[in-house]
Design a protein that fits this description.
Blueprint: H1 2-7, H2 24-32, H3 47-51, H4 53-65, E1 74-79, H5 83-87, E2 95-96, H6 102-114, E3 118-122, H7 129-138, E4 144-146, H8 163-172, E5 176-179, E6 188-189, E7 194-195, H9 208-216, E8 221-222, H10 235-247, H11 253-269
Parallel strand pairs: 1-3, 3-4, 4-5, 5-8
Antiparallel strand pairs: 1-2, 6-7
């Protein structure tokens, strides 16, 4: 992983542990390679999360109470099977954890209590937007990153999710951010048969409405890789092509620096980046 990061000039990554009782392995990794890895709590992407999320978050609270963690992992509230799982014929990851239920409230409360950011995977469906707005309104100091901007795998399930709608969220909820770990322009989600990268047009250019949003509110977006072992071999080309060429290279200088590292630094440290 360090070799990949150095090859594409990625300074640091929040690499959340999986299948671990707590986040200690992340702290150990940071101690061995402090210039590369950010201490991150467990990844809420596996059965231990969706089968008993409150028990999972009780463990996260214990980790955060040590003061050794600077970020929380990704937590799945609505998740369709990933492309690699679809390829393998595995559909068990079609899961829902109510965002406005006990687990959602507990997670947002942790962020407020410890001033630590976290990620949510929340595949886009119109009925799920009101619960999101409800918890965002209740926890204004929570630092939440909604993963995969404009990744719509079932367009028939949403009519509301547009650049204008995301603009309205940004203007109402100061703690809400979005990561740009999005599929390449020609990616097709096989179960629906649609191109799921609505951030891009068919020629690989950022759609005008999304580009205008990135430029108007650059403080609210973060470059990201969505790294995980099943797609390890795609890490370097993904960072070079999607994140750098298609996104960062077309942004204005100020937006580019904020999206590439400045916003992540602020969320992780609580302080703006100073050169």
């Amino acid at each position: 992983m360090i070799g990949y990061m150095e090859e594409v000039d990625v300074a640091q990554i929040a690499f959340a542990p999986a299948f671990q009782p707590n986040g200690q392995v992340s702290v150990d990794l940071h101690r061995s390679y402090p210039e590369h890895f950010i201490p991150t709590t467990n990844s809420g992407e596996f059965p231990r999360w969706w089968n008993d999320p409150l028990a999972f978050l009780a463990g996260v609270r214990k980790d955060l109470e040590t003061g050794m963690y600077f970020f929380m992992g990704e937590h799945e509230f609505r998740h369709y099977p990933s492309p690699e799982q679809v390829e393998a014929g595995q559909f068990h990851r079609d899961i829902t954890v109510p965002l406005d239920g006990p687990a959602g409230h507990a997670l947002f409360q942790l962020s407020q209590d410890f001033s630590v950011g976290f990620q949510i995977h929340y595949d886009i469906e119109d009925p799920l937007l009101a619960p999101l707005e409800s918890v965002l309104a209740r926890y204004p100091k929570a630092l939440v990153i909604w993963c995969h901007l404009a990744m719509i795998r079932y367009p028939d399930r949403t009519q509301k999710y547009t650049p204008d709608y995301i603009r309205s969220l940004i203007e109402r909820f100061p703690g809400l951010h979005f990561d740009l770990a999005v599929p390449p322009p020609h990616s097709v989600y096989r179960p629906s048969g649609v191109r799921d990268s609505t951030l891009f047009d068919s020629n690989g250019r950022i759609v005008d409405g999304w580009l205008a949003l990135l430029e108007k509110y650059p403080e609210r977006f973060l470059s990201a890789s969505d790294y995980r072992p099943p797609v390890e071999e795609k890490y370097v080309p993904y960072v070079l092509y999607v994140q750098r060429k298609l996104i960062l290279d077309v942004l204005s200088e100020r937006a580019r620096h904020l999206v590439a590292y400045g916003n992540a630094w602020r969320i992780i440290t609580g302080e703006p980046w100073r050169a």
